Amino acid sequence: MLEFYGTSVSSRLLLGTAQYPSPATLSEAVRASGTAIVTVSLRRESGRERGGQDFWALIKGLGLRVLPNTAGCHSVREAVTTAHMAREVFGTPWIKLEVIGEQDTLQPDPFGLVEAARILCDEGFEVFPYMTEDLVVAERLVEAGCKVLMPWGAPIGSGRGLNNAYGLRTLRAHFPDIPLVIDAGIGLPSHAAEAMELGYDAVLLNTAIAKAGDPVMMAQAFAKAVEAGRLAYEADPIEARDMAAPSTPLMGKAFL
Amino acid sequence: MRITIIGAGVAGLTCATEFSEQGFDVTIVARSEHIGDDSCSWYAGGMLAPWCEGESAEEPVVRLGQEAIGWWDRHVDCVERQGTLVLSHTRDAAELRRFSRRTSAHEAADAERIAALEPDLAGRFRHGLFFPGEGHLDPRKALEQLAETLRRRGVRLQLGTEMDKAAIQSDLTIDCRGLAAKDALPDLRGVTGEMIVIRSSEVNLHRPVRLLHPRIPLYIVPRGNGAYMVGATMIESDASRRISVRSTLELLGSAFALDPAFAEAEILETGVDARPAFPDNLPRIRRRGQTLYVNGLYRHGFLLAPAIARMAVEAVTDPTSTPEMMDENYPERQSA
To answer: Is there a single domain that holds both residue B227 and residue B126?
Structure first.
């Protein structure tokens, strides 16, 4: 059974809650996906002065575990402040930590990320850091106290899938005991299946479902892909090889 | 039959128009001192663009929204039937393909067509979509004209009055208070929109232009005399009172990306308000005793108010009827 910080997780698909056509569609898609954890942004979605109460109530009403995130934060201070607010609003020590370092690719700032992770872990937060697939950054985050890592597949919302399968495989091999979640860049169910086949513990996605023509149907597709990928991983797939090997023995057939 | 309508935003004034045209004795009571105060309709874009909205809205918005342009044209004189132009930069061509797949009633617009429709954008965009059946209006003029027509017809407008102090004898109340009706409609929530009005002597656009962008979609609606409304953000919140720096940067940055000449434009106004929405972002008519709630127009106030007002009249004229947007039909439509 997969566990994040000691909490058992029943689904290997985690969903973001932004960009859906309506909260009603969000709620239907979440149900169709079978997810047990949703992530919610406290910054962009809520504006200032606690204005997002209605939306947060709606998220809480889904009855799932909430993983608040610091999406849109560009500095350590912003991220830490947002994490504090998240803990208060959702009553959870969980925080998906995003510290954005570059505007065009929205790629994480590894230095700010490690610093913020250290501060938050020391304060008792259970941090889910959004990172690149960089091995050294991963080590620093684990040293800081992170017990889950969330490397990207590709830039947020780009739908490009796993840009660096080699790097992700290496990361998996280096951290066999840390739950690894692909966060960002997933566009198609096949991308999610690929991540699971690599041995990743879960995938987190948002845009691929929220912006699909039929988000509810796409949520079902992702649920199936994640399950298929995980089963494939556990079933120990064959290695690719260069030489063809017939699945039907040649013996007994006529040679021409 | 005497009807009291609470609220003088687009829902209230449109309902008042429909009810008084059907011969009802209508009184409007509104908290605001003037038309537009305290009303999110004042900050609307005024796009009558049912097909474009189909990109993200549900089917009823596209279908019912098609009633809007004719209704407004019959009631106010500020409707422009110039269509909508949807553009993307070449880098974001995927956004345009997606928009095209999700919508209908559009024509492909190549560089030449774009130049013919909007000469100021000539040479800047190579791919676009033109929605010839759409239009736009000036929401503020439209609201004021509706109110004026109602006054002339003998409808009483009690502005600056709280409902509990109005002491009106009526047979039925139509509650069009928007987000203020949250006390009676707990599933209503506010979705903030921010807008900026700019004026440029250099840029001359004839119709609403939407610029698609993966992060910051933008629309610009001409308001006449060089004024343009630039909108709009969508934030799941109801508490903002002033536009944020981030939204200002995004909106104006996108306007600049559409036409760099906007850099010299002057900023006339910024506006923020929260629009009332139900969980499925569709409007609803809800009957509670002698009150009919008309609410949840979300970002589709001017687009859907005529259809919803028509249904409110149907619901009152024939109490056994359940027009499409009545609460009773909501589960059926959901599963359909």
So the answer is: yes
- CA-atom Rg of chain A in angstroms: 20
Least CB–CB distance from A55: residue in B236, B281, B282: B236
Domain count, chain B: 2
Residue B60: inside a domain, yes or no? no
Locus of tokens 């109801």: B238
Mean pLDDT over B66-71 rounds to 96
Which residues constitute the domain of residue B18? 2-44+138-187+279-335
Is A96 noted as a catalytic residue in this protein?
A: yes
B253 shares its domain with B219: yes
Based on the fold, state whether residues B223 and B287 are members of the same structural domain: no
Residue in chain B nearest A158 by alpha carbon: B214
Residue B69 in any domain: the answer is no
Those residues with Cβ within 8 angstroms of residue A198's Cβ, 6 or more apart along the chain or in another chain? A162, A165, A168, A169, A172, A233
CATH of the domain at B116: 3.30.9.10
pTM of the predicted protein model? 0.83
Residue B84 gets which letter from DSSP? E
Same domain, B101 and B202: yes
Please identify which residue in the block is written with the tokens 């040293």. Answer: A143
- Crossing angle of the two packed helices A135-144 and A110-122, in degrees rounded to 10: 20
Catalytic residue among A96, A147, A211, A253: A96
Determine whether the annotation assigns residue A72 to a binding site.
Answer: no
- Specify whether B106 is located in the same domain as B146: no
Q: For residue A47, what pLDDT band results from cuts at 50, 70 and 90?
A: very low
The distance of B178 to chain A (nearest Cα, Å) reads: 15
Mean pLDDT, all residues of chain B: 90
Using CA coordinates, name the residue in chain B closest to A25: B280
Q: Is A173 on the interface with B (CB under 8 A)?
A: no
Domains and their CATH numbers in chain A: 2-235 (3.20.20.70)
Whether residue B233 sits in one domain with residue B326: no
ipTM for the predicted complex comes to 0.74
pLDDT by residue (tens digit) across B198-247? 999 999 999 999 999 887 888 999 999 999 999 877 777 776 678 888 88
Predicted confidence (pLDDT) per residue in B190-204, tens digit? 888 889 999 999 999
Question: pLDDT tens digit string along A105-144?
Answer: 889 999 999 999 999 999 999 999 999 999 999 999 999 9
DSSP label at residue B166: H
* Closest residue on chain B to A207 (Cα): B214
CA distance B96 to B290: 47
| Residue of B102, B238, B279 lying closest to A24 (CB–CB) | B279
* Cα A211 from chain centroid (whole Å): 17
| Encoded tokens for B286 | 């809800």
